[in-house]
Amino acid sequence: MGHDLLTPSRRRLFAVALLLAVALVLGLRHLHGGGAAHVAIPPLRTAATAHATAKLLVVDVAGAVRRPGLYRLAPGTRIADALSLAGGPTTKADVNLVNLAAPLADGEQVVVPARGAAAAAGGASPAAPIDLNSASAEQLDALPGIGPATAAKIVAYRQAHGPFRSVEELDGVPGIGAARIAELKGLVLP
User: Fold this and answer.
1) Which residue numbers in the chain have pLDDT < 70?
2) How far apart are CA 182 and CA 91, in angstroms?
3) Do 94 and 118 form a contact (C-beta atoms < 8 A)?
4) Distances in Å between the alpha carbon of 118 and those of 31, 96, 128, 130?
5) Is the distance from CB of 83 to CB of 89 less than 8 angstroms?
6) CA-CA distance, 93 to 76, in Å (whole number)?
7) Cβ contacts of residue 1 below 8 Å, gap of 6+?
């Protein structure tokens, strides 16, 4: 009588407790993804940590890039960073027409043109609007009524004040007034 301390009911209780402990361990491993491969594809790709999401810029990268789409980037990042997130330019891209050093603004679209797209545009009348925040001085100079000096002033203004948020902000550039802004509408975008 004294040598068997575990009665049948205690043995069952012990077995149930052991099974519950094993089930608990397996359940916790499953919840924490222990070995389970699960893929979550976010709607936006990001270059920063999730806790800083509220402060990130959302940028649309389009044109001759490997993975066009929307990207979240930290404030202060440059067009080169956005292109890198988009997998880089394709072999058909003409990155010489993109100012890779230009800072990004929230809601901005970065378009990487394909080679030959600028020639097909017909010189001074671009086929697609020019992005004020990424255009080079040479691209701006091709716009009607904008010469090399004014193009340089636009680039200098952008560097001093940050990215343009609207076409109307060109009013702050010396030598550009309301009439010139009206002429540029549809040819440029912020």
Assistant:
1) 1-6, 27-54, 117-128
2) 36
3) yes
4) 53, 11, 9, 11
5) yes
6) 24
7) none
Helical residues (DSSP H) of the chain, grouped into ranges: 8-31, 79-85, 117-120, 137-141, 148-161, 178-184
| Residue (of 130, 134, 184, 190) closest to 166 by Cα position | 190
| Structural contact between residues 89 and 65, judged by C-beta atoms closer than 8 angstroms | yes
Residue tagged 């979240």 (tokens): 72
In the chain, the percentage of residues whose pLDDT exceeds 90 is: 16
Calculated CA dihedral for residues 136, 137, 138, 143, nearest 10 degrees: 100
Rounded to two decimals, the pTM is 0.42
Matching residue, tokens 């679209």: 109
Question: How many other CB atoms are there within 10 angstroms of residue 20's CB atom?
Answer: 10
Per-chain mean pLDDT for the chain = 78
Q: Interior CA angle at 72 toward 70 and 73, to 5°? A: 130
